[in-house]
Design goal:
35 strands, Suc6P_hydrolase, Tachylectin-2, Chain A, 2 domains, Glyco_hydro_beta-prop_sf, 479 residues, binds beta-D-fructofuranose, Jelly Rolls, carbohydrate metabolism, five-stranded mixed beta sheet, mainly beta, cytoplasm
């Protein structure tokens, strides 16, 4: 939603209790509130931030402007979880209340160090002429949730970047702390800077070099770069804005992509043996994905189900955005797989055989198999006329197509109403999670993923098998 700058950057303390109350009341009227996905308590949710493990729990913050469905003065909102399925807001926030983050506590990461959580983030600062000074700053969060910001700036804007310099991700590589930061160079091309903590002290950072990852620089900015290690292979997850479509086929306003690499050469600042660039997700929205290597040896990622610069039907209720399910990353036969954590199975009620259903509560999981050499059409969020979200699985030609053109309220139509990807022309397994206005489709245990939203009309609650032979189970999901 387009709101004037004065409203979006109004100081938090200037909002009255009455105004805040109205925003909460308006959101409660939404017919699309999710059941088992994390949504903002109020206002707009964008990037996952500070995804980490600390004090015996998983930590996940989200970027937030609490006063409506717009990108304004951002804060981090803290949630925690024991199982990576149920996330609870704790009331802890990292607010833009310091001279070094006066115009927003922008995205960043977190890491447990000496019984405290180190928060590494971008302080968005603007002067009277609205000129931006992007600062990489830090804070400690203790076990009681008390946050203490560093007085010192950790990384200043380097000479060779524009005002677009943000989203530091800290990671440990062979016992040394490193950080990567997304940047735009003076020719307005996206790139990534690598830093390391001097003597492993995260209050002191030195520049290592510009990360070589086999990128072409066709993007104008790289947002939210993340480096994780899956089976010791570096996997770079990033959001390259303006990426040339000759390099990668994508339909969303901005893609979220990855590369699998063979090794990390810190001497030459290089991700060696980088694969081509791939879409992380083939759906209508998944962005700013953040991941980390957890102490349990697993690699977890979570995505913002939303995109910058898009209006959503929920805007009328003063909120926008949701967090995806947490997905575990693995590599099989050289391919990256993403699949919801095993604890998601605990939300399942008893299995029912998949059949046409006229009214569900739009809160379920389907686990289905489509035979080889066939074409199946499945409509979710279906009404009596079988309008809804159409999923066509063609195992003869090897294609999966998702069409939301007759599912409820339409939006972002400039970017098309269908999404598709190639699949193996053979028997195909799908796990489809539906949550009121969110869907996440996992093909063959996470080889391909489609994430997106639909905003169904009131009568769009059915499941219709229009064509083909599909079999499997339906599970109601309850929290
Ligand atoms: C990505 C992003 C980040 C930035 C944050 C601000 O969606 O633009 O680059 O830190 O959102 O909310």
């Amino acid at each position: 939603m387009n709101l004037p700058t004065e409203i979006r950057y109004r100081r938090y303390e200037d909002w009255t209790e009455n105004e805040k109350h109205k925003i909460i009341e308006n959101k409660a009227k939404s017919p699309w509130l999710a059941s088992y996905h994390l949504e903002p308590k109020t206002g707009l949710l964008n990037d996952p931030n500070g995804f980490s493990y600390f004090n015996g729990k998983f930590q996940l913050f989200y970027q937030n402007w609490p006063f409506g469905a717009a990108h304004g003065l951002k804060q981090w909102v803290h949630t925690e979880s024991s199982d990576l399925v149920h996330f609870k807001e704790t009331g802890i926030t990292l607010e833009p209340d310091h001279a070094h983050d006066s115009h927003g506590a922008y995205s960043g990461s977190a890491y447990e160090i000496d019984s405290k959580l180190f928060l590494f983030y971008t302080g968005n600062v603007r002067d009277e002429d609205w000129v931006r000074d992007p600062l990489q700053v830090g804070a400690w969060m203790d076990k009681e949730g008390h946050i203490e910001k560093f007085e010192k700036v950790l990384i200043q804007q380097p000479q060779d970047v524009t005002e677009h310099f943000r989203d530091p991700q800290i990671f440990d590589y062979q016992g040394q702390f490193y950080a990567i930061v997304g940047a735009q160079n003076l020719d307005k091309k996206g790139f990534i800077k690598l830093y390391k903590a001097t003597n492993n002290d995260v209050t002191n950072w030195e520049f290592v070099g510009n990360l070589e990852f086999g990128g072409t620089g066709s993007e104008y900015m790289i947002e939210c770069p993340n480096l994780v290690f899956v089976d010791n292979k570096p996997v770079l997850l990033y959001s390259p804005q303006g990426l040339d479509k000759s390099e990668l086929d994508y339909d969303n306003i901005y893609p979220n992509t990855y590369k699998i690499c063979q090794s990390f050469d810190t001497e030459n600042t290089e991700l060696v043996g980088a694969s081509p660039i791939y879409n992380l997700d083939y759906g209508f929205e998944a962005y700013a994905t953040q991941g980390f290597n957890a102490p349990d040896g697993k690699v977890y990622i979570v995505s913002w189900i939303g995109l910058p610069d898009i209006d959503y039907p929920t805007d009328q209720y003063d909120y926008q955005g949701a967090m995806s399910l947490v997905k575990e990353l693995t590599i099989k036969d050289g391919k990256l797989y993403q699949y919801p954590v095993p604890a998601m199975k605990e939300l399942r009620s008893e299995a029912k055989p998949l059949a046409n259903l006229d009214s569900t509560n739009n809160t379920y999981e389907l686990e289905v198999t489509v035979p080889s050499d066939s074409k199946t059409e499945l409509i979710l969020f279906a009404d009596q006329e079988s309008n809804g979200l159409k999923i066509t699985i063609n195992t003869k030609e090897g294609q999966l197509l998702v069409d939301r053109s007759s599912a409820g309220q339409q939006y972002a139509i400039d970017f098309g109403r269908t999404r598709q990807c190639d699949i193996d022309p053979s028997e195909t397994k799908l796990n489809i999670f539906v949550d009121k206005s969110i869907f996440e489709i996992f093909v063959n245990d996470g080889e391909k993923v489609f994430t997106g939203r639909v905003f169904p009309n009131q009568d769009q609650t059915g499941i219709h098998i229009q064509e083909g032979q599909i079999s499997g189970s339906y599970f109601d999901l309850g929290v």
